[in-house]
From TrEMBL:
InterPro entries: Glutathione-S-Trfase_C_sf, Glutathione_S-Trfase_N, TCHQD, Thioredoxin-like_sf. It comes from the Eukaryota. Residues 3-85 form the GST N-terminal domain. It holds the Pfam family GST_N_3. It comes from Mucor lusitanicus CBS 277.49. This is GST N-terminal domain-containing protein. One of its GO terms (molecular function) is glutathione transferase activity.
Length: 247
């Protein structure tokens, strides 16, 4: 393994899981060190903001080159390691990935579930974290633009956690996505997309379903037989087993 080949990630985060799964689907996981970072600390520190201005995980670093964002990682891996298997330039695949990426598990798990829920403590923690980002921006003027990006991400994240309407919108969005997925799998004989056996979209679907089943509701696919079967088939693949036993 080359020292500068790293996947910065957080084992509990859903998109980190997608990142690890992409490496395993590609069969290149042994060429990268999986390096966990401390969320709330490392991800807003200047060294990480330089790699990924959004301050999110995962970020891939290959031969010293940072590639933030899972979709960019899928495209990059297909470009660097042949054969290409992700079809991450196909408009249909990208559209499906964007639908899955709208699932914000943070909102579903820790958002404001009822209009009367007291979120004062959470709001105060978020406010402190925002101040920390502003201080970093002030003391690192060369990263001013990057920290502006982080502040936007921070504010979006805060809304997801403390706004009840946002929670409801995400809950309804997930229900619609699961309904549409069940129908697509039934129409396409068990595949997410017609005419395509596998693509990067599978990493998102199976990574997010795995997270939902293990952290939100183990019975979430109970009345969705096509999706349950699809999940079980994907979970039996060696890439899935490698990705989720390793961490
Ligand atoms: N669009 C990004 C989303 C990444 C993302 O949302 N990461 C979350 C964890 S699942 C994160 O780092 N959140 C921490 C934060 O913003 O403070 C991708 O696909 O890589």
């Amino acid at each position: 393994m080359t020292q500068s080949n790293i996947l910065y990630y957080n084992p509990g985060s859903v998109f980190s899981n997608v990142g690890v799964l992409l490496l395993c689907q590609k069969g290149v996981q042994d060429q990268f060190e999986l390096r966990p970072i401390q969320m709330g600390v490392d991800n807003i520190a200047p060294w990480y903001i330089k790699l990924n201005p959004k301050g999110q995980v995962p970020t891939l670093v290959h031969h010293g080159k940072p590639v933030p964002d899972t979709l960019a990682i899928a495209k990059y891996l297909d470009d660097q390691f042949k054969p290409s298997i992700f079809a991450a330039d196909d408009a249909q695949v990208v559209a499906l990935i964007e639908r899955w990426r709208q699932v914000r598990v943070l909102s579903l798990l820790s958002g404001k579930k009822t209009a009367s829920q007291d979120v004062a403590q959470m709001a105060s923690t978020l406010e402190n974290s925002r101040r920390q980002v502003e201080e970093y921006a002030k003391s690192n003027p060369e990263l001013e633009e990057a920290y502006k990006v982080r502040l936007d991400v921070h504010d979006d994240r805060s809304k997801i956690l403390i706004d009840h309407d946002t929670y409801m919108a995400h809950k309804e969005g997930l229900a619609r996505l699961l309904e549409d997925t069940e129908k697509a799998l039934s129409d396409n004989d068990g595949k997410l997309l017609p005419d395509r056996d596998q693509s990067a979209a599978d990493a998102y679907a199976v990574g997010i379903l795995h997270w939902l089943k293990s952290k939100l509701d183990k019975d979430i696919l109970k009345s969705r037989p096509w999706t349950e079967r699809y999940f079980q088939e994907q979970a039996a693949r060696s890439s899935f087993i490698n990705a989720f036993n390793k961490k």
